[in-house]
Fold each of these.
Amino acid sequence: MRTIFRATGLSRLAAASDYKPEDVDVQFQVKRRDKDGLEPLQASAVPRVSPGDEVHVLAKNSSDQLVDINVLYVGSDYSITHIVAERLAPQATLEEGLLAFTDTSFGMERMIAVLTEAPPESEKEDLSFLAQDGVAAMTRGLGPASFSDMLADIGMAPPTRSVMRLADKSGPKGAVMIFPMETVPRA
């Protein structure tokens, strides 16, 4: 019998969730390069992963509503990679391998699962627009030539967010779950 990491154990890691644990369950597991089977990501410890290890997801929608799931990966350089966008029908399950770690970066990284309730006949929620390159390593002496150049650079950033009033509770259900991990070189 395998032990699995349930979103219900993420109270200190989950930013917000409108779903009851029995409605939608998301589990992330690690498959080690040199081992068979899957290890659960534990809420009590930040797991260490190495090049060749893989992350797998198991998500089940036990509710009577459509649920969209997006998985984003935030690298140690703050890059954001959109991994998957899927719509789960009521009683549907998503079970697949998502990614394999490489030796191109090491440090604290995060898997983020975003769940949104989907109205019938709507388009699937696709958060791929959040993907971005990592932050370039900077050293002293690099960057804008002056303070006014820096302000101009900040002012030219494209708009990327919108807002919703806090009192507005009429929107669809949703959840954001964050699963941290540390990538380290293979010993």
Note: The longest strand covers residues 107-118.
Amino acid sequence: MKRALLFALALAACKEEVAQNTDPLPLAPETLGYFCQMNLMEHEGPKGQVHLDGLPGAPLFFSQVTDLVTYLRLPEQSNTVLAIYVSDMGADGATWAQPGAANWTDAKTATYVVGADVTGGMGAPELAPFADPAKAEAFAAVHGGSVMGLEAIPDSALAPLTPNVAEGDDDYARRLKSLSGTEG
């Protein structure tokens, strides 16, 4: 009995760690955005997914690439990131309205157009990722913006939009006054 137990322990000690599969998963009708919990296939623009250590086959999906980059930069984000993918907007058949369900590219090697005249799935300015830098340059020539890598994207490109109260968002202005205690 002791011998069998020692043999079992020796086998367990020799067990090789199996690497977690981090291949990108295609979008499906039930795929929800991590922040918004909305169906991703119902929104325009490129998407993203992050594979975290300990969550095999369950990446976090993002309705906008800006959301993905924001998540990666959050100080609270302490999980080990194993892989990051973004929609390749230069892939065959990819359009802003239908960016594709399975045309993923590695976010770390993608080229991004920042500051273009495009909005993402949540209606905010969006980053446009491309696997091919030449296609990013061509996109920027038409839509404006600067071409850069993931690490060069400035935090200011990730900032949420704030309503312009001067243009008549009366409800927003009323709620701000209410919160500040200046409304009677």
Note: The chain is about 25% helix and 15% strand.
Amino acid sequence: MLEARYHVYDSAVLDAPIEEAWRELRDVVKLLPVVFGDAVKDYRYVDGGSAEKIPSRFEFTLHPSGEKAQEEVVARSETEHSLTYRLLGQVLGIEGYIATYRLRRITTEPGKTFIEWPREFGVAAGHDPATVVPSIAALTAKEVATIKEYFAKRRRST
């Protein structure tokens, strides 16, 4: 039996040159507090993982629910400025989650970077796709908007 797969996508233009943005975003564990703020805690690499090792597992706890998530970086390209990671198990009513965020240089606007963040996932048994899918789409949009604001604030403070 085929299981339904869902796709969500969001993108933004960051107010930072690609080299600066990539320095901040290439380590997914450092990205977690940027996109989630106080909504995550105890984020760290596990099982000997690190920003320099592929594959690398990492985990974090969602606050206030206390739900733990374990994910794994499965690919990173320094030349393509992209990172792919997947969810191990399920969290937030999803499973089989895989995502890749990519940065692209904007050649017509030096000092700006395009970020795109497509995600694919299934809805875990016992959860309603009509609730879960819009929730994940909204979370994706919020994360991208948060990254955009993060770089805008950095630019304003310099």
Note: The chain has a mean pLDDT of 93.
